[in-house]
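From the pipeline queue, job 12 of 40. The input is one protein chain; the requested action is below.

Action: predict structure.
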Amino acid sequence: SDGTGDFGKAFLNTDIGLDFRNGFELYGDLNLTNDDGFMRRFGFDQADRLVSAAGLRRFEDNGYLVAQALYFQSLRDDEVDAEIPFALPEITWRKTWTDTPLGGRVGLGVNTLGLFRQIGRDTFRITGTADWQRDWQAPLGIRASAFANAQVDLYRVWNDPDFSSNLLFRATPTVGMEFSLPMVRNSKNGVQHVLNPVAQVLYTPNLSFNDVLPNEDSQQIEFDETNLFSVNRFPGYDKIETGARVNLGTSYRRYDPTGWTLGVNVGQVFRLAPNDQFSDGSGLAGKRSDLLAAVFFELPPKLRMVNRVLLGGGFEIRRAESEISLNFDRFQASGSYVYLAPDVAADSPDARSEFNVAGSYRFLPNWQVNLEWRRDLIEDHNIFGLLGLTYGNECVEIEVSLSRRFTNSINVPAETSIDLSVRLAGFGGGLHNRWAAQSCVQMR
């Protein structure tokens, strides 16, 4: 207790699983705290939102079923917990079949989601999906694929004057084709080059009888190489990308016999008519998307570098990300840099530019020094710094560190901390590192 009758400050983090017959699993992943700044202030977690989940799930080779409830807790200064929704139920079922009468693969899915708040809009949605895809080898080495899918939604909305309280309906079909031409060249010195241009043509009509629906799960959009060829680049069910569009991209890989790999991805989206579903800062608005490029270099397990950039009109940088990691016997280091242009629609009205470096050096078999530094390049000030010393063996890991948080918020003030942590093998998450064995326990 803190002397005022309150329990004090604490957090709970637990992961529970219980297996049943027929592949079903009952699970719980609980993350709760009674103080918004406690976890960040004492270095347990840097998350600004906590998610707790409990439910039942089953995974099979050709499908899965997940039924769960979700509780969200915001740790941000500008968010009110009463306006954060509680999700119940969220049920997702999907199953696929191959060797169908139509040829190719057929998939069916159902998703339901109820979102309820103490203050604000409540919604309940039922979504059904059906999809079909068939691949074949075309002449001249071209790989072709035809696909079609449909999504049908039923919504009910309460406590929001912008939407009718009657049942809302939407039906959205999509058809498309994809063509690729993978080319491989093997050099005499053992180097392999792989070039794979891809073109994807899609059409999704925005049918006139569809109702206007609330958007709860597709607020944040990230355009990168992972969703360049996605049918729908919105991350959830509430928004569906519409219109006629062509997704073009090329990937190149160089595999060296000494073990290193160089990769390049380039892509862009073209539309027949401007798309106003996406914000200007997303990189997907208008008739032509921003130019997407990514380069990576790998020399496992010692070195990995990744660079991504999103270029707007006039080659204006909309987003840039760089990551590097080094892993040697006694020395490990990682660094990252990110630049994000302003995007008001994504609740980010100001540009952001930060870098972060972290590293460790094991100067003796059981002793290691640790370093971390994070800096805001736009505001030109430090965000966080840490210097630590760790001793470890096969039984215990002891770490003492001096850290400084340079930024202020309502829940987490700027401060300097000295921390001591002890981890025992076999308890909790176990030891963070592998250490040279010492005789900490003698058996007689």
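Job complete. The first strand starts at residue 11 and ends at 19.
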